[in-house]
Amino acid sequence: GGGIRSLDYPRGLAWDPGRGVLWTIEHRRQALTRLTPAGLPAGGFPLQGTSANALPDAAAVALGEQGSWWLADRAGGRVIHFNADRSFNSAFSTAAEGIRGPVAIAFDPQGGRLFVADERVPRIAVYSSAGELPARYELSGERQPRSLAWDADRGLLWSIPASRPDRVELLRLTEPTPADPANSFNVERTILLQDIASFLEDELALAVAPDPAGNRFWILLESGTLVRVSMGLALQNVRELSLMRSVRGMAVEPEGTLLLGDGGPLGTVLRLSTDGSPVTSFTLCRQVDRPVAIRGVARSGQRIYVLDGDGEILICRLDGGLLGRFGNNV
Q1: H helical segments located in the chain
Q2: 317, 303 Cβ separation under 8 angstroms
Q3: Cα–Cα distance between 62 and 206 in angstroms, integer?
Q4: Whole-prediction pTM
């Protein structure tokens, strides 16, 4: 029962330790949306406003000092600072560093440093809160980030390489020395999505947000799925934030409601009310312990039949509980 809130193409992710919530950007709505640690929407606010703070293409968010927000404006080639009361604070351009379309941003509150990157440019620019440029890091090995997040406890920069979004890399930045005058970094740890869960093997990471104090982190996938993982890589929670991006089957129920097979990674079936609003859903991935790629949905009596891309037919109760399966893999 109850309505299901589906986010409008979420992009960017940041953990807010002061409020105990996550923040993401709903791209089409251009809204900053608050999520509980379990991924449930819990309010937010629109980003459009005056000409000073209008955001035509907000791509990433980072938490600043005293509960403020830093946002990357990809189309505007700048970063923008909002105060905790949602009022506009300041903005500065990143174009001089060749970062004309910033998509990744992270803030180090202890050092007052802002890390900004463009997935097309092999560079991380480091700014002060006033927009001054004290440092830059040239990246090698096609490691242009599509997401950045600062881990204050470990002094590490979490990054998703744009050319290899099947992984998260933890970078330790090193300061120049007489022997090595350039800023550089070491990859201290690489986390592959497939090492977290088998159903993530074909997924692509879009953003990452660590919570070192809670010994956990979140990954936002391109499919709109939010994954919560322990630092030891134990899967803790999975939630599809953006449903019905692609529909893989539909059936009309005797009650007049609709069953839709969602094209996301969890094998989700949604039940829509007569006015088209999602009201309930269930997922099949956990029940069969493997990825489920829905190709069709049907109902007969008190049973729901789901055709899987692996050639199986999954038989479920009306509430989604798995009753049985038959086909190629059984």
Answers
A1: 193-196, 285-288
A2: yes
A3: 15
A4: 0.83
Q: What is the pLDDT of residue 323?
A: 94
DSSP 197-212: -GGGTT--EEEEEEEG
Per-residue pLDDT tens over the stretch 216-268: 999 999 988 899 999 999 999 988 887 666 788 899 999 999 999 987 778 88
**Token pair in block for residue 72:** 């990357």
**Given its phi and psi angles, is residue 178 left (phi above 0), alpha (psi -120 to 50 degrees) or beta?**
alpha
Residue that the structure tokens 């109902």 belong to: 299
HSE-up of 4 (CA within 13 Å, CB side)?
A: 21
Cα–Cα distance measured from residue 199 to residue 86, given in angstroms and rounded to the nearest whole number: 38
Contacts 24+ apart (CB under 8 A), 182-189: 182/138, 183/135, 183/136, 183/137, 183/138, 184/137, 185/137, 185/139, 185/157, 188/156
Question: Strands 31-35 and 21-26: what pairing?
Answer: antiparallel
User: Could you tell me how many residues make up the chain?
Assistant: 330
